[in-house]
Amino acid sequence: MHNYRPAPVLEALGVCSEDEQLYRALLARPESTTTDLANDTGWPATRVSRHLRSLLSLGLASRMPGRPARYFPAVPEAAVELLALRKQAAIVEARVGASVLTAEFRARHDAFTVIRGVEAVAQRFYQAQQCAQDEVLVLDRPPYVVVPVEARRAHGVTYRTIFDMDSLSEPTDLMAARSTGCRMLRDVPLKMLVVDRRMALLPTSHDVIVEVGPSSLLDGLLRLFDLLWHQGSPLSPTPSDGPLSFEDQQLLSLAAAGLTDQAIARRLGVAQRTVERRMQRILRALDATTRFQAGLRAGQRGLLV
């Protein structure tokens, strides 16, 4: 076992390669002692003990009663599900904290301005983007108020947009959203446009927006965007010379976002049978047995970002 090191598949869920290596050793020999694992991995006992503690904290292993201490691995499917839920916990934490931010939002009148009227709202969205120097961040979900014009992209301004999955209901919508810096997420919690991380516009209705200036509220909104960005699925896979074509990467990105074959076929404008056939080819190309495993391996190879 000393020379066999399969490619890691759990790094995307926060498991380091050495922890995964020990987890695989434990899967191969359940009820192992520290000495057994040291022999199997070729590691010193102190190193094995350190990574065993990590596996216990991650829920990938449990200690059995009795002496000498023996360890049993968690069932992979259950362990991966637990790790995935922990990844989602950061977003849950941010959304729970939104109530605190709302209280501050209402208390700090000096940190925000309310703008009313359809024309005034459209004008402010346009002006805000025209003033952008570095970056514009967008959370986008229906119903729509003002679509970002991305007028400053030609001037070196970076746009990053997170679309709600329900906003891309037709193939034409997906085509319009394929620009660099677009991701898709289920249940985007609010609509927002942030300019240079110093000012945010929050639509509250079709003719009212709140402009938020530098404050802890703005800091919280930025943290929420960053958390959602890391959870989103890219809409524009990076073309590569690897085992997947650009179309395959795009299909896998949509599958990773949780869309069914039928929904993917509708978004891409192809037959469902075509989606199923291409997905089987993707699994073979990545030597994966499940879509989840394929998504992990594609992400580790930089095929989805």
From TrEMBL:
Annotated SUPFAM superfamilies: C-terminal effector domain of the bipartite response regulators, Winged helix' DNA-binding domain
Annotated Pfam families: GerE, TrmB
HTH luxR-type domain: residues covered: 237-302
Domain of life: Bacteria
Protein name: HTH luxR-type domain-containing protein
